[in-house]
Amino acid sequence: MLKKTRLQKSIVLLLALLLLLAPAFSAVGAGTGSVEKMQDNELVLSSLDDSGNISGIQVLSHVRIFGSGDVSVQDPTQFKLDSVRNLYGSEKIAQQDGKINYSLNIDQSKGFSDIYYLSALNKEDVAKVKIPVSVKVTYYLDGQQIEPSKLAGKSGHLKIRCDIENLTGAKKVLEYTNKAGETVKKESIVYTPYVVAMSGWTFDNKRFANVQAPGVAQESPQGVVLDVQGKTQVSWTVPVIPPSYPAKQ
Amino acid sequence: MKRAIGLGLLVAVFFAAFIMAKDYIAVSSFYMAAAAMAMFAVLGPFGDYFKTGISMIIGVVVGLVGIIILIAKMPLPPDNLVYLAAVGGVSLFILILLSVTGLRIDGMFLGWAGYFASVYGTYTANAASLATGAVPAAVGVCVSLLVGLVMANLIIKIAMALNN
């Protein structure tokens, strides 16, 4: 009698579990999803060394897929990757033949699903990457150029110079209609517009005094200096948009 | 009585000095030292301090391994509660298994919990920073627990002085 009761309980438990897990099993097994549209936002994170040379590049991708069911995605990559990491989900991401491959189950209640992954570029391929804006940082102590690694423990008048250049300029033939209604063709260098935001420069007031962030007249804007909780924070917003603003500042 | 007051002042100064140095040992949870002190004080004058200390360090190490696995292999916060629960559960199960070797389970739990209390805020806010901060935090927690051990010894001496 006792055995029979246990068996009945086990069967009830099994049936309950099957009912709960049935949607999950059917979704995994389906594999016939449809994609309505995709949104792909990519944030490129470049790590620079002391002198502004690129030492590493990571790309944070946020892909939002609208549709239904299970879908497979192939994201072609231009460069070799050292690693790809799914940040917030458990979907397996593989890279093969210059493509990042993964499968995603679209959330039926929302009509879309998100996946975030972080890719690290191969060290050798980092050199091949042409970044749109170059940043060069130079340090001077009492007027003499110095490597930042040799600054520790020294005192004097410190000057940090940042050179930024928009490298996207390319010759293009522009065609437009002038006031007389004539179609005019003109060759010109066209740039992709960028605004460089430099932030995170923090100077401890115990070690630094009289922090200033001047710009260069007719060339670059001055920075913003904030003195908060014993630390001076400096930030710049620099538009490198020719012809309104110089490409190199 | 004079001896008790003297030792009490020594504990107070020592603990205050430790709080002053909190920024240099990569851990801000100085209250962990107080928790460890309570734990050691309960052991009494003839307690097994060495074994308890080793157990705490083992707990910290298990916590460190757990957080490394969470950062490197598991989905990151905020929607990763299942993975966090799994790692936490497995960690505590490992601690229980380790207790079979004679290590103190209370000490291991305190070490593990102390480490997680120290790094969990950073893990949820900026997990990437733990790539460089996880090990220094473990060292800081071990130092905190060691400070608790030293202070507990002094407190027991106070208690014994008062009894005499």
Main pleated-sheet profile of chain B: none
How many angstroms does the end-to-end distance of chain B come to?
Answer: 9 Å
Extract low-pLDDT stretches of chain A.
14-30
Judged by helices, strands and strand pairing, the structural class of chain A is mainly beta
**What Rg of chain A is obtained from the alpha carbons, in whole angstroms?**
28 Å
Write the H/E string of chain B, N to C: HHHHHH
Q: Specify the helix fraction band of chain A.
A: 10-25%
If strands are numbered along the chain, what order do they take across the biggest sheet of chain A? 1-2-7-4
Profile the largest sheet of chain A.
Answer: 4 strands, antiparallel
Low-confidence stretches of chain B: none
The total of beta strands of chain A comes to 15
Number of strands of chain B: 0
Look at the structure and give the mean pLDDT of chain A.
Answer: 85
Shape of chain B: flat
Biggest interface, chains and residue tallies: A-B, 5 and 5 residues
What oligomeric assembly is this protein in? heterodimer
The helicity of chain B comes to over 70%
Number of domains of chain B: 1
From N to C, what is the helix and strand string of chain A?
A: HEEEEEEEHEEEEEEEE
- Averaging pLDDT over every residue of chain B, what do you get? 87
**Shape descriptor of chain A:** extended
